[in-house]
Amino acid sequence: MKRLLAAAAAMGLAAAAFATATAGPAAAATACRVTYTIGSQWPGGFTSSVNLTNLGDPLNGWTIRWSFTAGQAVTQAWNSTVTQSGAAVTATNATYNGSVATNGSVSFGFNGSWNGSSNPVPTNFSVNNVACNGPVPTTGPTTPGVTTPPPTTAPPTSPPPTTGPPATPPNGTIRVYWLKPTDVQYDQRYPDGIANVMREAQRYYQQELGKTFRLNNPVVEVVNGDHPRSWYENTPNGNECYWWVVFNMQQELMRKLNLRAPDSRWINVGEISAEASCSGGGGGGGWVILSGHDADGAAGIGGNMNRWYGGMVHELGHAFGLPDSSSTDGTPMSASFYNYPNTHFSQAQKNGMLNGPYGSFLN
Fold it and tell me: Where is this chain compositionally biased, Pro residues type (predicted)?
C-alpha cells in the first residue's frame, strides 16, 4: 500500500449493483417491496442482487424468503446469510444491516448456478413471513405494457452495436473504463461485473459518509485498446514492473479520451484485462488504475466478491485523497479492507474525503 503511494507520485498519482437488468418490483402495499436484479449471466452461472424496501414499521432484523422455479441454486452470497433447501431460499441479515427504517432499504447479492435454458425471476417473496405481492417482474428493465425479453444465455463475444461515442458526463462524475486489449475477446461479464463493484462501493460510501458519488451512465465505458495484452504487460513504463500494465493503460486512456492526471473534472477508474506476474495497481489524485486480477474478480472469476468490493472502496479512498493507514486498524484504508464489509472509515478519514480536493464529488 505505501509502495503504491511512493511509486505513483512520479506519474502524477498518489498510488494505489450491476450493470443491471432490473426486475420489476414484487411488492405489497403495506409492508415491503423486493427488487430482484440479474446483473450478469453466462453458461452455468449468474449474479443477482436483491433489494428490500421496508414499507412498514422499522425492522430490527429481516428474513427474506423466495423459491426458485427452474432449478437455480445459490452458490455464494454477500451482505446476507443465505441457505437453500430444494427450491426454497432463505436470506437473513448480517450483523451490520439488520435495522431498516420505514421507507429505508437494504440489499445483498449472490452468485448462482442455473440450467442454461431458463432462469426466471422469482415472484413469491416474503419478508419476516409477510408476503410481498405485486406485478410479476421480468429479467430486464421494465416499461408499462412492454414485455422485456430475458437476458442472453451466454456472454456475447462482441460488444453491442453503438450509435456513436457516449456523451461527455457532467463534471463531478466518476467515470469507469474497461480497456480491452486487441487479442482479448469481448465478454459482457466484465462491464457488468465492474459496474456491480462500483455500485456496491457507491452504496458503502453512502452508508459510511451519508453522502456518495455519482456514476456515469453507462457505468462502464468499454475502450478497445491499441495493442495486444503482451504489449501492456511487457512495455516498460515507470520505475518497476509493478506499474507497467496500469501506467500503459492510464496513458492510453488519457490520450484517447482527453483525460488528465490529476483530473479536476472527473474521478477516473481504469481496469484492463492484462497482467504480468509482477503487475499491480493503485489509486490517488483522482484516479484508480487496476490490472487484470481486479477485472477478473469483478467479473466473478476471482472468488469472494467481498475482496473486490473492499479493494475498490480502498482504492477510491486513495482517489479521494486518503493515505494508507499505518496499521491494520479496522478501516478500509488498511489491510482491514479484506474483511469487507466489516470495516468502517474513521471520522478523520471521513473528514479527509469530505474536505479534500474531491469532496464536492460527494453529495
Answer: 147-169
